Amino acid sequence: MPLDNRVVGGVISALWVVFFAYWTVRAFGNKRSVYRQSRRSRLFHLVIATGFIYPVLTIRQLRIPLQRTTAATQVTGIALCAAGIGVAIWGRGHVPGPPADGPDGDLPLPALR
C-alpha cells in the first residue's frame, strides 16, 4: 500500500527547501564571479528552463509513471533525493574550486598517449 502522496511530496519539497536555503547562505561568502552574464542571456536561459520544466509539472499527460507506485518505490525516491542533496551539500563544503590554470593558460591536464 503506497504512502500518502502529499506526505511524500512534502518530504521531498522540504529536502529541496533545505538545499536551496543552504546553497543561498553559502553563496554569500564566495568571491564575485569573474565572468558576468548579461541580463539578456540570463533571461534567455530562464525562458528555456521554464519552457521545459513548466509543461512537465502542469500537463497531466506528461506525468508518465515509469514504475508502479508502492511504499518501497516512494521510500527509495525519498532516499535517492536525500542522498543527492547530501552529496551536493557535502561537495559544496569539501571539494575545492576549479583547477588553477597551467603555465600556458590551459588547464593542467595529463598528456594523452
Give a brief outline of the structure.
The protein has 113 residues and is mainly alpha-helical.
- What's the main sheet like? none
Q: What helical percentage do the residues reach?
A: 55-70%
Average pLDDT value? Answer: 83
State the shape: flat
H/E topology pattern: HHH
Structural class: mainly alpha
Proportion in β-strands: under 5%
Can you tell me the residue ranges where pLDDT is under 50 for at least 5 consecutive residues? none
**Cα-to-Cα separation, first versus last residue:** 56 Å
The number of strands is 0
The total of helices stands at 3
Jot down its keywords.
0% strand; 113 residues; 3 helices; 59% helix
Descriptive account of the structure:
The chain has 113 residues and is mainly α. It has a domain at 1-13 and 42-92. 59% of the residues lie in helices and 0% in strands. It has three helices and no strands. The chain has helices at 5-27, 39-58, 71-94. Helix 1 packs parallel to helix 3 (71-94). The chain is flat and about 50 Å long. The model has no long low-confidence stretch (mean pLDDT 83).
Helices and strands in order, then pairings?
Blueprint: H1 5-27, H2 39-58, H3 71-94
Helix pairs in contact: 1-3
